[in-house]
Amino acid sequence: MPTPHEAETQHAGPEEADQPPSMSSHGAAPTAATPAATLAAPSRNPCCLCWCCCCSCSWNEERRRAWRASRETKLQPLPSCEACTAPSPEEVRSWAQSFDKLMHSPAGRNVFREFLRTEYSEENMLFWLACEELKAEANQHVVDEKARLIYEDYVSILSPKEVSLDSRVREGINKRMQEPSAHTFDDAQLQIYTLMHRDSYPRFLGSPAYRALLLHGPTASCSEA
Question: CA 39: distance to chain centroid?
Fold first, then answer.
């Protein structure tokens, strides 16, 4: 028959997974009620990916604050589109010539992103845009922070916005995240770009939204920043 302590341990709730890892108790004096077997057991080795919010490594207060800041960031509404002007009929037609032309056009990305939202795959475009923003950043402190947020938002298996990446690319990201750079996600960005090109782009060209643009032009546009 399990002791009260064991019963409590067995019924720990799954909601703990969404909480920041607790501070390490290394160095704390054992109490008289602590079983000898527990004292002799080796402590869990901390993983090298503390920033991903999915392990039980000990965090200092700075990392606790970073975790809370990232959670608050995720709760903020995402901008509905990039700042751009209304595309000309020629520009709209050029989007059917190649995926590169579509993705090089801010207005094209907005329309394509709206289409991806209807297919519940908008995170692919959001991830690609976040990688572009990261590559343009020169401040290493900002790079570190943005890389961590990109990982948490689009790479972590705990994120509802996780993008589809193969194991090879994920392993590469995990290694590079130990010393993040502006190009930490280059392989992943290319993989998602290729996925959108091969999978979503053909359906976009045949969608009612794009056909309506070809016939009638845009009905609204994002203003310039």
Answer: 39
